[in-house]
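Supplementary Methods S3. Complex input for the coenzyme A-bound model.
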Amino acid sequence: MTISPSPKYLHEIEHSGLAQTAGHWSEKDYVEELASEHSKMFYMPAPTEGFVLYRFVAGDIEIMNLAVRQKGRGHGKVLLDAFLALPLLGASSPKIFLEVAASNVAARKLYGRAGFVETGLRRAYYRSGEDAVTCLLEVSHESV
Ligand SMILES: CC(C)(COP(=O)(O)OP(=O)(O)OC[C@H]1O[C@@H](n2cnc3c(N)ncnc32)[C@H](O)[C@@H]1OP(=O)(O)O)[C@@H](O)C(=O)NCCC(=O)NCCS
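Predicted complex, serialized as structure tokens:
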């Protein structure tokens, strides 16, 4: 597993089927996001094969996108647990924010199991018109 501040893993994401799994993001979206010095990609190779795209926002972290190539096999849990165990997250006590589509049951369960709390609803947040649920995890040193 690796942390990269650059679009180094775009090739893997685009050509392994990961981008298709992750859905609504285009290659341009990844390139633009990773062009920011605040953005990072946490990539886990097979057998987990997944990524967490996140950015630092005023000392906290926002997860922008997260996906595994093969869904429903527990890989999401392995990926998220590994991400939350990163030492850089334990350096202070950051908050981790994200939004998830209201209908994305697997993701909402995944985040709930990891300790994320659902804090609100953003109506018609996505281009599709779907609502987003906002989630928050307050990372403590005991939990990393
Ligand atoms: C969201 C995602 C990362 C979850 O990873 P996963 O490997 O499929 O999920 P897991 O197998 O670890 O399961 C996580 C939980 O969801 C449940 N689950 C998995 N697939 C499910 C489904 N289709 N419907 C309902 N629940 C489901 C599991 O039972 C598990 O719950 P549990 O802890 O209560 O047993 C993955 O499905 C994915 O890549 N989806 C596409 C991208 C995406 O939607 N990302 C979220 C962006 S916010």
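Helices lie at 10-15, 18-22, 27-34, 75-84, 87-90, 105-113. DSSP finds six helices and seven strands in the chain.
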